[in-house]
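Data card: per-record layout.
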Amino acid sequence: MTNRQKLARLLAEFTRLRDEIAAEGKATMKLWHAALTRDAFRGSALNLAHYLALRRRDISGLQEQLSLLGLSSLGRSEARVLPALDAVRASLSVMAGVPAVKWPSPAMQKRGADTLLQEQARIFGADPGGPRSRIMITMPSEAAGDPELVRRMIAAGGDCARINCAHDTPDVWLAIIANVRAAAKETGRACSVLMDLGGPKIRITSVAPPEKFRLHRGDRFLLTTEPLPADGQGIAAAVSHAEILRKLKTGGLVWINDGKIGARAVESDGRRALLEVVSARDKGERLKPEKGINLPNGELDIAPLTQKDMDDLDFVAAHADCVGFSFVQRPSDITLLQEELARRRPGRPPQPLILKIETPLAVRNLPRLIVQAGGRQPVAVMIARGDLAVEIGLSRLSEIQEEILWICEAAHVPVVWATQVLDTMVRDGIATRAEATDAAMGQRAECVMLNKGPHLVEAVAFLDEVLRRMDRHQIKKTARLTPLQSWAEPQTLA
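The structure for this 494-residue chain is written out next.
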């Protein structure tokens, strides 16, 4: 077989692939049709549908063949699936000596990336003189009474002020927002305000005995929603949601405080559970109120919005530039929030939503969540690596965050790289080497989030410099296209 014949065979194979992906994308769009009421998002949804079709296949062998021919391996095709396929097909047709296929125009090739940049600016504001990635700052309570602190944060490179509704009160939030608006005007910088709903996070509400103590491996304690035992009757912790105890079976694993404590259920009757610590540092870990609890792979039937969230929405709908949705898991969760916000904002445009991906179910539903939200309003996705790592397992976190980046780029949806970025620097004033590397990798996202701490201003300035340096070397990434397992089936919105 001559080289021309081999190229013709490869072209035929590639053309079949392209046509199958186009057909599957069209079929998926029919499933999503009802949710797509915002015309500006239809092209992005279609590209996402094409990308899901592409990634149901293992084309890593095809990638190698294309690379050996000096052609695109499709490893950067996320934002422009069909144009990328058509460009490769056109090149193959010329090399094979068959009637040439028309190349897609440069404008078609760039449209996806341009749309993503537009959405980034729409949600997080424009920063022409800054790094490509925006910087989100979690506002401390002190920001309400210290305008100079807020001004320094924004001047150092802050682009988005995050207010966590799980803390403080509307009076404090209003003061923080006023200081953010004033500082943005004074520094001549854009700074949007994200208000992050607390959501149905399962937490420890109280601990007995109340004195400080540490749990070590092998220690046992009681988890319950009932009144705690009196002092002297052992260690016990009350939880905010009874559902976790109904789901927890004997032998089941529970993680507390972002995985610092791992415990297995020795006994569990649906109302209370006796737990034995199986994972903790050698010096032990404190069991404290307000710390989160995770049940890995346990899909809990909990309302997506708490009563506190409903109360907070009155303020959020009036004052926030964008809304963070904690523990979102299903398209119906988004529909509920959209309806609640619309009732509070009659005649006003919908606020952008930032979907916080924190559970395995949210990962599996991610394309449907994006379509349900983006079909009505601007949307971004936050990789909430704290709860997500505990829920899916730390060994899977790096893999899953890469897949989330790919899916979001295919949908032209900005991503927030969040949780423990430069954590040691924010708290203690100096970053670890691993943290500096993590911050640099965050440059592939459209926004990087810092949490609050005494050295937040220095951390903002350091992150701004790291991101600028990385902009010289990297734009997003190049991927090897083996199948994505999390979204193997067509995505309906039911």
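Known properties of this structure: The chain has three domains: 3-104, 118-200+303-471, 204-294. The longest strand covers residues 261-268.

See the next section for split statistics.
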